[in-house]
Specification:
Elements (H helix, E strand, L loop, with lengths): L12 H8 L3 H9 L6 H12 L3 H15 L2
Helix pairs in contact: 2-4, 3-4
Amino acid sequence: MAAELTKGPASYFPSIEKKYGRPIREWERIVRDQLPAKHMELVAMLKDRHAMGHGHANAIVAHVLSTLKD
């Protein structure tokens, strides 16, 4: 049986860690430290302060915000 592929924002995590040199848990903390804020404000913060690409920033923010729901 083939290994199940990671889907959604988490599919970006290995490349984010490799490209930006920090573990995902650290990026999650950086985003949480800025709450409350809107999704795109958090994406802009990662892009502006950490030179992160839009797709990677969006993936982290989407993941963090999804853990806050419910």
